[in-house]
Amino acid sequence: MTQPTDIPREHLSTALTLAASGMPVLPLRGGKAPFGNCRACVNNACGGRPNMKTPGPCTCPAPCHGWAAATTDPNILNSPRWVAAWWDAVAVAYHPGGAGLTVVDLDNAAAIAWARDTLPATRTVPTTRGEHWLYRGAMQSANAVRHNVDVKSTMAYARWLGPGIGTMTALPDVVRALIVKEPAPARPVSVTVPALAGGGVCPHRTPTYLDRGIAMAEQRITQAREAVHATVYRTFLAVLSTHGRCGCLTEAHTARLFTAAQAKGETARHCTEAWTNALTMLGLTHG
Question: Are residues 135 and 172 in contact, defined by beta-carbon separation less than 8 angstroms?
């Protein structure tokens, strides 16, 4: 398709070249930000494309929705609405995750020094204030993983500043670990511990039996890979069904269970609710 002579050929040509290589691209306006939503999509009237997991324009079609507008389709890039955007564009951006890449954005010399000491060498691209380190593989994006360090991959965009230098390395675990947050400290909670709820005598001959049961319960919670909330409830239910009627279960034991649950992301409120529901299910609450 013949382009009008007044279109900024450099940006469009770069975009088409990148798209042909499988890299989803989009134009950036002044301020190096994506174009705002068109009138048909303002306030997410079209359904909110940024909430989707894959790049591509909505049905307008226009370079809307930030990173999610990125595309490899030359027909879209050459469409009238995109041509108008290229006319106003100041740069080309791309969606790293859509290209199977991760960019570690190092914003100053100190960040670069940290990366050289910490991260595997890979392809680097100079930026205005620092460097982009490109790795082969996609991951979740996150800002400020360290001071002046961002990770751009899925659901994010990066400015195209050239191919860079060096051999691109496979995305290492040390980069993936940058976005993993340390679990919040467990909050102390006050819970009800049944005291001889059944009116019987403790059947446990030694404290070892109870300690082993609590340790197994902690392990069950800690090893949960999914349905953590349900696992916590079922574990509380099992502990109370075995130890809740004899009076040997103390607040120290339940604190261990709550700590294990909160380390998996459960809130203190959810722990208390699960404990209360288990008590109710077993008839251990006092009316």
Answer: yes
Between CA 198 and CA 179 the distance in angstroms is: 48
User: Which of 223, 222, 210, 286 is closest to 254 using CA atoms?
Assistant: 210
Q: What is the 3-state secondary structure (H, E, C) of 53-69?
A: CCCCCCCCCCCCCHHHH
pTM of whole model > 0.70? no
DSSP state at residue 285: S
Q: How far apart, in whole angstroms, are the C-alpha atoms of residue 118 and residue 9?
A: 40
Helix ranges (DSSP H) in 123-267: 173-176, 207-222, 228-243, 251-263
Task: Say if CB 63 and CB 57 are below 8 A apart.
Answer: yes
Cα–Cα distance measured from residue 262 to residue 46, given in angstroms and rounded to the nearest whole number: 39
Beta bridge partners of 98: none
Beta-carbon contacts of residue 285 (< 8 Å; ≥ 6 apart):
192, 276, 279
Look up tokens 């199977």; give the residue: 100
Q: What are phi and psi of 136, to 5 degrees?
A: -85, 110
| Gap between the Cα atoms of 271 and 264, Å rounded | 11
Among left, alpha and beta (phi > 0; psi -120 to 50; other), residue 48 is left
User: What is the tens place of the pLDDT at every residue in 144-202?
Assistant: 999 999 999 988 999 999 999 999 999 999 999 998 765 555 555 556 555 544 445 55
Pairing of strands 101-106, 131-136: antiparallel
CB proximity list for 249: less than 8 A, separation 6 or greater: 193, 194, 210, 239, 240, 243
